[in-house]
Write a structure and sequence with these properties.
The chain is of the alpha/beta class. It has helices at 34-37, 43-54, 56-70, 73-81, 110-122, 157-174, 196-211, 222-225, 264-284, 300-303, 307-327, 353-357, 359-368, 381-394, 410-425, 428-433, 440-447, 459-468, and strands spanning 5-7, 10-12, 22-25, 86-92, 126-133, 180-184, 216-220, 241-246, 287-292, 331-334, 338-339, 346-348, 455-457.
């Protein structure tokens, strides 16, 4: 078996035949996220808190078992049965080095990543390796696991040096693996100056290519994979590179400006947003990969009788996006494969030990809108509105839109800082205290809640994905 590679606007095999990659991201696994598995704040915070509560040994046992159960052979077999052929594997740099011991490789970091790559290969599924969390934080959000809204990666050369070093180590380890479709060196960068991200990509390209000349690179645009406007002609120095957009539609979230009916104007808005993200690549005849996209879904415990109605609306958004992608023969990776019931193709049953243990806590998290992703802040908006009003009153209008505006509006910024960072950190210990006094066997059972056998399937979503897995327009 030979490597896949990028040729012009396409991903192709060794014979030059187009390979359209369609699948999902394994979010919440080797890069945990609060809305995916139900904790508050950031992964580094809950790992430290759990170690304080149950001890280092038990904490490490729980997280290792969590990683083991989260994706097994049963998951790979199911994924393949849907007709999908590629999984994006997000991971946190902390699996491979410690901040207090930088540039010293932790070989155990490869344990689960190797295992899942091999499971996927066994079932004929390609993988794309995604550095979702980089030293210092590459973006302003929780999923860069930095605990702040300042992306320090762009302000410290040593952080950037460590990213280059890590990709050199990863390239050494995976250079000969042809089931890996490619490397996604940095998830959703937010460089306020728009130029340092291009410079870092150039460093990464040169460093990886010295070790691994074969694997394709999938490079995210700046500002959450939406903006290539400052990339200029840098692509002329790079070969075997695809460019990644993240094409989330506002209509797929609780903050949608209006119910989605699939009107001509709404579909035009979806297409306009998508085309703007890929404009730079289209003008230059470059390959586009949609590395993340997809709606979130209503849950009966929160949305009640409107749950099915809301979800049918979200499926319409999904289908209308796919109609565009099929016309363009686009490779994509929907977000995401597994979670606790908000967005995943499969999700943990409410009858599992984990979900029973955290039932009340999850309800509190939802009411307080502690997570940013798809947040419904209706029950606490009155608390934060006075702060928003104060800023609008006292700050000149031309100074209110701070980067990453316009992706972050003023209300988003206040929500991130006041709820998702400040308020959330007060609940980290409460999350960890749920594990106090648990035996190793009990910790194992809690982690096992995430096993495929204990998950439900989002049938409506999965049917749409299967129906569209290989559905593309004829080549032009």
């Amino acid at each position: 078996m030979a490597y896949l590679r990028v040729s012009g606007t396409k991903v192709v095999d060794q014979n030059g035949k187009e390979v359209i990659l369609r699948g999902a991201g394994l979010g919440g696994w080797m890069n945990m996220e609060n809305f995916i598995s139900g904790y508050p704040g950031c992964e580094f915070q809950i790992r430290a808190a759990l170690a304080d509560v149950v001890g280092k040994e038990k904490s490490e046992l729980f997280f290792d078992k969590f990683l083991e159960y989260f994706f097994t052979d049963a998951d790979a077999a199911f994924f393949k049965s849907l007709g999908l052929n590629c999984i994006r594997l997000p991971f946190n740099y902390r699996h491979f080095e410690d901040d207090m011991n930088p540039r010293v490789l932790k070989p155990e970091g490869f344990k689960h990543l190797d295992r899942v790559i091999e499971l996927c290969a066994k079932h004929g599924i390609y993988t794309i390796l995604d550095l979702h969390t980089a030293p210092g934080g590459q973006n302003t959000d929780w999923h860069s696991d930095a605990g702040t809204h300042i992306a320090k990666l762009w302000e410290h050369k040593d952080f950037q040096d460590r990213v280059v070093w890590l990709w050199e180590e990863l390239a050494k380890h995976y250079a000969s693996n042809t089931w890996i479709a490619g490397y996604n060196p940095l998830n959703e960068p937010t460089d306020p100056y728009h130029t340092r991200v291009v410079e870092l990509y150039d460093r990464l390209y040169q460093a990886i290519r010295k070790i691994d000349p074969h694997h394709a690179l999938f490079l995210d645009g700046n500002t959450f994979a939406s903006d290539f406007s400052h990339f200029g002609d840098v692509h002329k120095r790079w070969d075997n590179v695809a460019y990644s957009i993240h094409d989330y539609s506002v209509f797929g979230f609780p903050a949608s400006p209006e119910p989605y009916q699939g009107t001509e104007e709404q579909r035009r808005r979806i297409r306009r947003s998508y085309e703007k993200k890929r404009q730079w690549m289209d003008e230059r005849g470059l390959c586009v990969w949609n590395g993340e996209w997809g709606p979130v879904y209503a849950r009966k415990e929160y949305e009640g009788a409107r749950t099915e109605e809301i979800n049918e609306e979200r499926y319409r958004v999904l289908q209308d996006q796919l109609s565009i992608y099929n016309q363009d023969r686009l490779s994509w990776s929907i977000w995401l494969y597994k979670d606790i019931g908000f967005q995943g193709m499969v999700y943990v049953s409410r009858d599992t030990p984990y979900m029973k243990l955290f039932k009340d806590f999850l309800e509190k998290k939802h009411r307080l809108a502690l997570d940013a992703w798809g947040a419904d802040d209706s029950q606490v908006r009155h608390v934060y509105q006075p702060l928003i009003d104060l800023i609008k009153r006292e700050v000149k209008p031309e100074h209110q839109d701070l980067y990453p505006a316009p992706v972050w509006k003023l209300s988003d910024r206040v929500g991130r800082l006041a709820r998702n960072i400040l308020l959330s950190e007060f609940f980290v210990r409460e999350w960890a205290e749920h594990f106090r006094g648990k035996s190793e066997q009990e910790l194992d059972e809690i982690a096992k809640s995430f096993h495929f056998d204990h998950c439900l399937h989002r049938e409506g979503l999965n049917k749409i994905l299967t129906d569209n897995a290989t559905l593309v327009a004829q080549e032009k």
